Amino acid sequence: MEEEKSNQRGNTVGLVPRRALGRTGMQVSALALGGYHLGSAKNQQEVNDIVARAMEAGVNFFDNAWDYHSGHSESVLGTALKGKRQQVIVMSKVCTHGRGKDLALQQLEESLRRLQTDYLDLWQIHEVIYENDPDLIFRSDGVAEALVKAKQQGKVRAVGFTGHKDPKIHLRMLNFDFPFDTVQMPLNCLDATFRSFEVNVLPVAEQRGLGVLGMKSMGGSGEIVTHGAATPEQALRYAMSLPVSSTISGVDSIQVLDQNLEVAREFRAMPPGEMEALRKRCSRFASDGRYELFKVTKKYDGDVGREQHGFPLAEELPA
Amino acid sequence: MQVHSDIPLRQFGNKDVRISALGLGGHHLGDAADEVTAMRIVQEAVDGGITFFDNCWEYNLGKSENWLGKGLKGRRDKVFLMTKVCTHGRDASLAMQMLEQSLNRLQTDHLDLWQIHGVAFDNDPDLFIRPDGGAEALMKAKEQGKVRFVGFSGHKHPDIHLKMLNTGFPFDSVQMPLNVFDSQFQSFENHVLPELARRGIAALGMKPISGHGEPVSRGVITAQEALRYAMSLPVATTITGIDSLEVLHQNLAIAQGFAPMSQQEMQALRDRVKPEAGDGRFELYKVSLKFDNPESRLAHDFPIDMRQAETKEMMQAAKNTGHPYPR
What we know:
The complex is a heterodimer. Chain A is an alpha/beta fold. Chain A has a single domain (15-308), classed as Alpha-Beta Barrel (TIM Barrel). Helices cover 42% and strands 14% of the residues of chain A. In chain A, the strands form two sheets. An eight-stranded parallel beta sheet of chain A has the order 3-10-9-8-7-6-5-4. Chain A has a two-stranded antiparallel sheet with strand order 1-2. In chain A, helix 12 packs across helix 13. The longest helix of chain A has 15 residues, at 272-286. The relative contact order of chain A is 0.14. Chain B has a single domain, classed as TIM Barrel. By secondary structure, chain B is an alpha/beta fold. Chain B is globular and about 55 Å long. In chain B, helix 4 links the parallel strand 5 (80-85) and strand 6. In chain B, the strands form two sheets. In chain B, strands 3-4-5-6-7-8-9-10 form an eight-stranded parallel beta barrel, surrounded by five helices. The longest helix of chain B has 15 residues, at 92-106. Classes of the chains: A alpha/beta, B alpha/beta. At the A-B interface, loops of A face loops of B.
């Protein structure tokens, strides 16, 4: 451990910087590797290569969720992290979507098994996107109780929640005054002027000292970039320049990883004036949610949650 | 058998005009088995006391307006005819062009009501009121005598409706989804209806059974309960989709001699469906793209769905079927 640290210190050139994860005492890389897209990589070898290369560049934070690719994402990450577990911060998410504590703890065991570990550094409630989710989460015997228990049992070090739909739902979650350590949300240069998590949730999370995790820096599937609203560099730099602990970015190939690392290595924040100019320039693409489809359509809402909420599945209702 | 036209008539906002409490939806008309069926639906609806006819430039890519126009032949003067314009933020000149197309398809020289369709995107109110936007087209069409009244319609969010009202444009009518599920989820009933009453604007309800009737087919509510609830709200009319004579007869039976639900009955129904209302599962028009037509999606650069009726019609248009006229 000590030797490894000094190696890093001696060789910080070109490394992704580390930041405090709220008040957890953990230090996470400013760029995190998104778990969903890892499950879309060609094969295990490619995942191994992506993970190894990311770690060489200083990335130590790995995202995942119980339902990503029906468990495949956790499994390939677990395999890729073999022998490296102590060097990284591993997060996964629980997908009860209104169901009870016991199921949550069962999913935790499954996540641990797939990830080949006996603890998670961070365990979050996944996809808090339906208006009645906060009530379901905090009902008696709900998933919130599972977070407390898992922490007591030492199976998770920190807990949080995530969602991509509406800042109002995030604020309702925070109003329950549960001791969350982290909160995850979409943060990008279009969000700033449309149903904005940056404007409405980020300051509240900061004020409470929560670790903030940004996601969907390019719109979820690169919509912001492929439609020409911003370049990949601008989009990622903007997101990483916000007051967040880390920006989770989906990577399913070495090529995409390198594109991200180019921005994240020796990261320098955008000056406020440049951020303002980008927000302003992007606002015309932001005002109807066209490139933030996760806010205004069903496209990014997973089947596990749809099923629990009585919605048609993705195959029947793609967006 | 003698048919009595005893569907109640209600005042159209603060105007000196009365329309039937049940309106015939234009989209489902285009889903009828064939043109002859659609024409019979229209004719029997008029004879049964329905005077309010809904339609839209983009429904089934014109088929809905065409079939309604044919069905209304010889009956035009007995009805209050509405259609909608689909600029979705684009220019006034495009709106005027669409109006001519609608009039041609509906075989008439004027509309009783012309509404902006699909006000469903957060920036639609800004695009509507901008110079050279939809607002100018509505004024111009009224001045030219091509339309008597103007309004707008949308199914997405009450805040967007309120933003439209706050542009200050003199709307005569506003259309919105009104059903028992709406009463407790992003509610038009709670947030928009009272504002319309204050302003004397005609409220037009739609989606009384939630669009495609999912809560009915899943046994959460009966069609009769759903329609009665919607019609009991303070609206000028409730527009309901009818794609067969069977559904027409069913709805006529409810509407003829309609007696509104009591406040207690309405509250009991709200309470009963509460568990299914809180996440929008039966109001997909609010939380998904499902009810957003390709015309609106393309204007806003949203992805289209190949399975939608309008998208299929668009794709069909590229095929040479060898027929001189669509069959």
